[in-house]
Design a protein that fits this description.
heterotrimer, A mainly alpha (111), B alpha/beta (99), C alpha/beta (122), B: 99 residues, alpha/beta, Hypothetical Protein Ychn, Chain: A, 5-stranded parallel beta sheet, 4 helices, 5 strands, 31% helix, 20% strand, globular, C: 122 residues
């Protein structure tokens, strides 16, 4: 367990840096975690983050990379639904790293 | 006496065991997977309907909600919340859990 | 992905929430999706309750994992089988279920189970 401080508020994270309380997430927390991960957030990054949060809201799980890639392709177009594009945005794994920034738990079945 | 059952009637025989022993005037509270017994169309619902003639039958509402079964509770069965659960425990002089 | 494709069946026989079996099965199913195998899910006995529409778990302070069954389609897990006799014994019909399934008779379910290479029981 650890804590991060954002805007004078404290947020609990697990030992791998994932936010414990999903409901406490906001964009500033996302930006802060991105900073720790050395990811500079652009509109393209936010597009994926928002997609992940919507997916979680609907299905109550974080998608594995393959599922994420396919679903992004369906929703945002084939030029974005490939792992090269997603790994450029999130070098440590579109599911793992992006989920962390999105305040979601580590994806189930992430390989 | 208060009897508490928490197993699905199709998974275990604890509801049958309870209904065999429970004396008239007693109360049976169905919680967790036992709430399925008091839903219309379940094969155990007929046993519950019969038992209503001599026993008070209650179910725990949050467990019914969790399982998506709130709209099909057998008529005559009383839904209670957690406070109602506590009241039942306090009202009766003793309690058997049919684990 | 190269390799032998085997027929895997997950057999789900327990109601959700009362025990941990249903959730554990679902998690293994999601992991199995990564291995390009021929995966089937069978729901029989109290397992059919896992797919009941309208689950609201706020009151028992437990995560409602029923929406996750709807994500299986996107993970290429499309073979969901439900036993007719189990539905009937519980006052349920196909319309009460939150995903598209194939309803099988007990005899058909038995045959399908017989054809599997690997059966995982929950």
């Amino acid at each position: 367990m650890a804590n991060i401080e954002v805007g004078g508020k404290s947020y609990e994270t697990d030992e791998e840096g994932y936010l414990v309380d999903l409901a406490s997430w906001n964009e500033d927390v996302g930006k802060y975690i991105a900073g720790i991960e050395n990811v500079e957030m652009s509109d393209q990054h936010w597009e994926v983050i928002n997609f992940l949060r919507d997916y979680y809201n609907e299905f109550q799980i974080a998608p594995a990379v393959r599922v994420l890639t396919k679903a992004i392709g369906k929703k945002l177009g084939a030029d974005k639904g490939n792992s090269q594009y997603l790994y450029e945005l999130f070098p440590y794994g579109p599911a793992k790293q992006a989920c962390k920034i999105a305040g979601l738990p580590k994806p189930t079945g992430c390989v | 006496m208060l009897h508490i059952v928490n197993k699905s009637p199709q998974e275990r025989n604890s509801l049958d065991a309870c209904l065999r022993i429970a004396q008239s005037g007693g109360t049976v509270l169905l919680i967790e997977d036992a709430v399925y017994a008091a839903t219309r169309g379940n094969t155990a619902a007929t046993n519950i309907q019969e038992a209503l003639a001599r026993l008070k039958i209650c179910v725990l509402q949050p467990d019914l909600d969790a399982r998506g079964m709130a709209d099909r509770l057998v008529e005559g069965v009383t839904a209670v919340d957690y406070d109602g659960f506590v009241d039942l425990a306090a009202e009766h002089k003793n309690c058997q859990s049919w684990l | 992905m190269e390799g032998v494709v085997k027929k895997f069946m997950f057999v789900n026989r327990k109601a959700p929430y009362g025990t941990i079996y249903a959730l554990e099965s679902l998690e293994v199913v999601l992991i199995s999706a990564a291995f390009d195998q021929d995966v089937s899910l069978a729901f029989l006995d109290d397992g059919v309750f896992q797919l009941k529409k309208g689950q609201q778990t706020k009151g028992i302070e437990t995560k409602n994992f029923s929406p996750t069954y709807r994500a299986l389609d996107g993970c290429d897990i499309e073979k969901l089988y439900v036993e007719q006799e189990s539905l009937e014994a519980r006052g349920l019909t196909e319309d009460d279920l939150l995903v598209d399934v194939t309803v099988l008779s007990r005899a058909e379910m038995g045959e399908l189970m017989e054809q599997q290479d690997v059966v995982l029981s929950f």
